[in-house]
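[recover] target loaded
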């Protein structure tokens, strides 16, 4: 039985590692996926048919360098699997244990809320910089002349880059107040949909936590009703031993294998997303994007930092006394997230 527990732990670790790597390196050309793919290609290329090599390259390019709905479908599949198990087994057991119907309906309410923000993340324009809008967009934010410099044009879009914008290679467009490209919503996160992305993350965390609490409460009641905590067993040497935590966990795996499997997955995903949500909440409070956070720590290539231009040398010197250059105070920062600055507004510092 302990071998099964070990396999389950390995499974959860592998799944979370994959989710973390996909979230961290999606849309980036220099990432471990490309390095691993190059290494594997060199090793197996002599023994692999050409058609299989072309197909493998097409799959990797489709997943990580082009917009694709695959991760949206995967998101729906994982979510549907969790809710199917919760509805099929946990819901009935909880009703037998007199859990209130209101408490059991909360996860479904959270699912509706989450789906609403998920849809808005997918469909809302994140703030695409176009030829028609660029002349007004450059006035929304001042250039800090550290991360963003005046007069710099996007080599792909052939447009002057407004401060805080960035070109997304996956979407092939420049995005205002660019944060990152999220494969799970198949869209960039920028000025136009950051508020929906934050609310989406919060609702997913609340949904996972509520399901975990209801499921854990059900299993706890099952253990208490069975009297396992007062039970004992005969070990391999013939000695009577009290049933400890490991014995209880093994019993739960044997009695409710799918429920325990689902609970473990939901708990670990919750902690992963909770950390990610806290990070983005912090960025919202200080008015910084994840793109700016990485850039400010030198975690980007040197080509992302252009050589100072004449405008940089002769223009007004920005005030860098503040740690977060674009911060407008707590309420101002939150207001900017939920009510993005428009092209007719100018942001003062």
């Amino acid at each position: 039985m302990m071998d099964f527990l070990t396999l389950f732990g390995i499974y959860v670790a592998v799944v979370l590692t994959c989710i973390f790597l996909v979230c961290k390196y999606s849309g980036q050309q220099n990432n471990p996926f490309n390095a691993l793919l190059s290494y594997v290609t060199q090793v197996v290329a002599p023994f692999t048919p050409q058609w299989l090599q072309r197909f493998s390259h097409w799959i990797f390019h489709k997943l990580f360098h082009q917009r694709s709905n695959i991760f949206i479908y995967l998101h729906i599949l994982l979510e549907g699997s969790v809710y199917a198990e919760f509805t099929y087994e946990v819901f009935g057991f909880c009703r037998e244990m007199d859990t209130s119907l209101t408490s059991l309906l909360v996860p479904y309410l959270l699912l509706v809320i989450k789906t609403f923000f998920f849809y808005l993340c997918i469909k809302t324009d994140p703030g695409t910089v176009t030829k028609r809008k660029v002349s007004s967009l450059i006035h929304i934010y001042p250039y800090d002349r550290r991360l963003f410099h005046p007069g710099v044009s996007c080599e792909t879009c052939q447009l002057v880059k407004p401060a805080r914008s960035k070109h997304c290679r996956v979407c092939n467009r420049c995005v205002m107040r660019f944060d990152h490209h999220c494969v799970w919503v198949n869209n960039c996160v920028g000025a136009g949909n950051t508020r929906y992305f934050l609310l989406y993350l919060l609702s997913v965390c609340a949904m996972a936590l509520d399901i975990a609490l209801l499921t854990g409460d059900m299993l706890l009641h099952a253990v208490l009703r069975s009297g396992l905590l007062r039970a004992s067993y005969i070990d391999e040497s013939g000695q009577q031993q009290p049933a400890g935590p490991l014995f209880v966990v093994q019993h739960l795996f044997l009695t409710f294998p799918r429920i325990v499997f689902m609970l473990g997955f939901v708990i670990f995903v919750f902690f992963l997303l909770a950390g990610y949500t806290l990070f983005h909440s912090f960025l919202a409070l200080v008015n910084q994007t994840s793109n700016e956070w990485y850039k400010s720590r030198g975690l980007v290539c040197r080509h992302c930092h252009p050589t100072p231009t004449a405008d940089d040398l002769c223009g007004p010197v920005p005030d860098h006394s503040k740690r977060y250059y674009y911060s407008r105070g707590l309420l101002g920062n939150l207001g900017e997230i939920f009510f993005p600055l428009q092209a007719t507004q100018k942001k003062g510092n």
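[recover] notes: The beta strands are 166-168, 173-175, 180-182, 187-189, 232-234, 240-242.
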